[in-house]
Write a structure and sequence with these properties.
Helix content is 32%, strand content 16%. By secondary structure, it is of the alpha/beta class.
Length: 263
Amino acid sequence: MEVVILPTPEDCGRVVADIVARVVRQGTPHNRPTLGLATGSSPLLAYQELIRRHREEGLSFAGVQTFNLDEYVGLPAEHPESYRSVIRREFTAHLDIADEDVHGPQGDHPDPLVAAREYEHRVRDGGPVAVQLLGIGANGHVGFNEPSSSLNSVTRVKTLTAQTRQDNARFFDRLEDVPHHVITQGLGTIGRAEHLVLTASGSAKASAVAAGVEGPLTASCPASVLQLHPHATVIVDEEAAAQLKRADYYRYTLDHKLSHQPH
């Protein structure tokens, strides 16, 4: 695992955008990459930077396939807080990427368990995911894999914790409007991606970042599963890195990377 500590959230967004842009540029017209997209506040600055590069530098996403990490159960795709709507509003609608190439679980499927199984197959068939973007919850969740999630889990229905619902209530009119269930890619599903890129900023994420990066490998902190991955990059600002015991080593490593060595 590579840990990149940068001064500001904006710096983190630019480095995440660098990783995604490099993969997109390396694709050929007949072999476009597949990207895994996360919602929440963590990747927004990276999305904004990628939109800027598309508009100002000609970075093309034509032919790129994307798969969302998760979706609320019970919300139709057109609901403003469905993750399909959020990803479109915050990112893909501003790019030259076709709507039909942006995939997500069907939150309003009459049987969410069936929807989860179908989405797992779609992710498998559409892969491999070249870069999977991830945020991290204050309790260490990634996607909506709450603590106690199996480290080898696949896409399934999960019940949100009271804390996660409270954290997400700011996007809804009332706490009562926040769904209790989601369809989420499992930790095993996420781990099939070729490159995992987790980003976080702010002191509220410091404890979770430290547990995921330096704590034990445990279902009590789902983000710790990144420790098993052959290519995982954690990109955090100084506040989110505040509880990392090996922060000086991570900074030293970043300063002494080979000039041609990517994240």
